[in-house]
Amino acid sequence: MSDHVLITTIDQRGVARLTMNRPDIRNAFNEELISEICEAMGRLNADPNVRVIVLTGAGKAFSAGADLNMMQRASKYSAAENKDDARRLAHMLSSIYHSPKPTVALVNGPAMGGGLGLIAACDIALGADTSFFALSEVRVGLIPAVISPFVIQAITVRQARRYFTTGERFHAADAQRIGLLHKVVPANELNDALEDMLGGLLVCGPHSQGLAKELIRKVAYRPLGDAVMEETAGMIAKTRASEEGKEGVTAFLEKRKPNWLKETE
């Protein structure tokens, strides 16, 4: 196994895989891993050849959240230093959440605390049935502050009020029930589930996928009024006139594959 805290691979299809590589401490993230995820996401987000980004953990865990040694160092920081440290964590989550590419959390094992933030920041989350989870910050006198916008959006306010305040452990089936995971499969079928998901993602227009994500961010939680209707009408008009939109419709009518699939034929 590589000594790097983050292993990045990109296959011929344009599927990038980021593997958190600190298996001896359940892929808990420290300053170095946070920095490397931010750097990798910036590079992959800007790469037109990358179609999908998959985030997973090495070994038997997805991520135990923040490294306790890092947390101990942070306890000695000044208020300004502590805020800067929290901003770096927020930037990492934001780089995943705002990626123009589809992002998939491949949850191969337990995820705790900030590890749930990573899952919630991804567009799609697939989990092994052996996984378990906890928002355990309150059990050590802390709160899940930086990850809260992402986790609350994923699991709803009602569920957050329970799991934020109890810190209790819950299993994969419950994670799927409350919206943290989209699909749960036996651990030995997790990569097959990923391939099925990738098959669906890779046939879609890459530019339209980015626009679809932008659409959700613009429309979610806004009143259904004239302003929203006008904005969405403008977005579809622009998409219809785009090169990718024209190619996709023409390819469908001509019963052929669109040009973005030529490399995978």
| Subunit organisation of the chains | single chain
The mean pLDDT is 93
The strand line-up of the biggest sheet is: 1-2-3-4-6-9
The name of the CATH superfamily of the largest domain reads: 2-enoyl-CoA Hydratase, Chain A, domain 1
**What series of H and E elements makes up the topology?**
EEHEHHEEHEEHHEHEHHHH
Main sheet characteristics: 6 strands, mixed
What CATH calls the topology of the largest domain is 2-enoyl-CoA Hydratase, Chain A, domain 1
Rg over alpha carbons: 19 Å
In helices, the fraction of residues equals 40-55%
CATH architecture of the largest domain: Alpha-Beta Complex
Helical element count? 11
CATH structural class of the largest domain:
Alpha Beta
Helix-strand makeup class: alpha/beta
Number of strand elements: 9
> Which spans of ≥5 residues are poorly predicted at pLDDT below 50?
none
Number of domains: 2
* Proportion of beta-strand residues: 5-15%
Write a short abstract of this structure.
With 265 residues, the chain is α/β, with parallel strands linked by helices.
Key terms:
265 residues, alpha/beta, 2-enoyl-CoA Hydratase, Chain A, domain 1, Lyase 2-enoyl-coa Hydratase, Chain  A, domain 2, 2 domains, three-stranded mixed β-sheet, 14% strand
